[in-house]
Design goal:
The longest helix has 30 residues. The protein has a seven-stranded antiparallel beta sheet with strand order 1-7-6-5-4-3-2, with helices on one face. By secondary structure, it is of the alpha+beta class. The radius of gyration is 16 Å and the shape is globular. It has a single domain, classed as START domain (Alpha-D-Glucose-1,6-Bisphosphate, Chain A, domain 4), CATH 3.30.530. The chain starts with a strand and ends with a helix. Helix 2 crosses helix 4. Helices cover 35% and strands 42% of the residues.
Length: 158
């Protein structure tokens, strides 16, 4: 199942990617998402974040009350306009579910647009489509929350 999201941040691409690679920002995202545990690792412009989150109500009957995720984003080098391309992988611990895709940060006027495109794969016979239909909205909701938290972060430091 294809997942796509578009976010707008009130800063230039370099500032936005720097924010996405800042451990304190990533930890704040974990707190604001309701994570009961969160581990952050940053190596240059590659981030790996492991979180235990409350499972969406509709998914809890399949996965239990919590779900562990490991998200890795690797940003490439800046382009002449400051934009960047990157890769995204989200693994769902202990489950045959994975999201793989790309991310792009590009300037748009005084803002930065971040676009995520990925393929959500569920390898659970018979109920794969049901799980995808539950997981996809939860992923896009998390990305919307990330946009909100990110713009608050930028405004507080701007």
């Amino acid at each position: 199942m294809e997942i796509a999201s578009r976010q707008v941040y009130n800063a230039d691409p370099t500032t936005v990617v720097d924010m996405f690679c800042h451990p304190e920002f990533l930890e704040e995202l974990g707190r604001r998402s309701g994570a009961s545990t969160s581990r952050v690792a940053v190596a240059g412009t590659t981030t790996t974040v492991s979180r235990t989150l409350p499972a969406p109500d509709a998914a809890a009957k399949f996965v239990g009350p919590t779900i562990g995720i490991v998200e890795t984003i690797a940003w490439g080098d800046p382009e002449p306009d400051g934009g960047r391309h990157g890769t995204l992988q989200v693994d769902f611990e202990g489950l045959p579910i994975q999201l793989t895709g790309t991310t792009v940060a590009r300037p748009e006027g005084a803002t930065t647009v971040i676009e995520y495109r990925g393929d959500l794969t569920v390898r659970i016979p018979i109920i794969a489509r049901t799980v995808e239909n539950v997981a996809a909205p939860a992923i896009t909701d998390a990305l919307k929350a990330q946009e909100r938290v990110g713009n608050e972060w930028l405004a507080a430091r701007g």
